Amino acid sequence: MPAERPAGAGLGGTVSEQEFRRALGYANSALDLLKRATIPPYPQFYELLYTYATGINPALNARVNAIFRDGHPTADIAERLYNEFLRAQDANERISGVSQRMSNRIVAIHDAIDTAMTTASAYSASLQVASGDLGSDELDATRLRVLADALLAETRRMQDANHQLEMNLAASRDDIEALQRDLDDVRREALLDPLTKVYNRKAFDDGLLRAVSRAEEHGDHMCLMLIDIDHFKRFNDTWGHQTGDQVLRLVAMTLKSNIKGRDIAARYGGEEFAAVLPDTDLEGAVILADNIRKAIQAKELLKRSTNEKLGRVTASFGVAMYRAGDTPSTLIERADRCLYAAKHRGRNMVVGETELGDEDIVAA
Hints:
InterPro entries: Diguanylate_Cyclase, GGDEF_dom, Nucleotide_cyclase, Rev_trsase/Diguanyl_cyclase. It is an enzyme of class 2 (transferase). Residues 162-189 form a coiled coil. Residues 220-355 form the GGDEF domain. The protein has two domains: 90-190; 201-363, Alpha-Beta Plaits (2-Layer Sandwich). Helix 4 (75-134) packs antiparallel against helix 5. Strands 2-3-1-6-7 form a five-stranded mixed sheet, with helices on both faces. A two-stranded antiparallel ribbon has the order 4-5. By secondary structure, it is α+β, with helices and mostly antiparallel strands. Residues 1-14 have low confidence and may be disordered. It has helices at residues 17-37, 43-54, 58-70, 75-134, 141-190, 201-218, 232-239, 241-258, 282-298, 328-344, 358-363, and strands spanning 222-229, 264-269, 272-278, 300-303, 308-312, 315-321, 350-352. The protein is built from eleven helices and seven strands.
């Protein structure tokens, strides 16, 4: 969604000359920033820098200013900022919308129940009056007929009210089930990396914390695998970011298809991926990592527009196992050391923490 829509700029609305010029200025600034940073003008990146140009999000502006001041922005950095500042807001607004719809439906159910209770109370009062009339000594055939007709009419009104309540409850049940599905979809999307469709960093952090807590509580095996695509920048610089995105999706798909059960595959950041592996010892995790490494290397990358062969993708792996007293941070630190060692030793290999030497620790 746009960061700012000038007043009157809704669908079918009119925009003043001043509002138009202001919005156009934001748009031009966003495009200039994209060119300056050599970031592809994909819609999400344009929205990110349009929001920056408006200045309505001080936290975002501070982050972008620091990036331009301290280094060169990249598409990976822009994607992380978009996910943090804009995509999360979109998910929150969708969740809020579902919650409002749920609240409206609950109010409608309460109203239907109140109406049914009022009708039931009136019916009960009619029955009490009829009971008194039936006990009267002056009841004749004519009065009995009138009384029966009145009771029949009240019974029909009660039946109609009950039928209406049943219909409202059935419709509400269907609506609430649909709302629940929508809410589940939003929650799932909020935890997925939009490019690779594996879990994002937030989901990884939450999953690793749960896995560490469970391993600590039950004494189970648990491993962490970190993966870094070798020479990823070369793909971007040589063939463009779309090819780089293809590489990221390929690695994510290979990782996801090789894990199972309660394992978690996630994009850790940029060209790095991670896998949380509950109920897996170090030996099993290293074997799994090597299988994934071979599966990635076996795939040859093609440029879709020309079917040109772009070579094979390789990746380096670091694997660490949970030890008593570990926190997510200490476990990540050891896995990262292993990953660094794999890179340092020539890439396209797996290093488990038992394979680390003193030189690896010093170098890391």
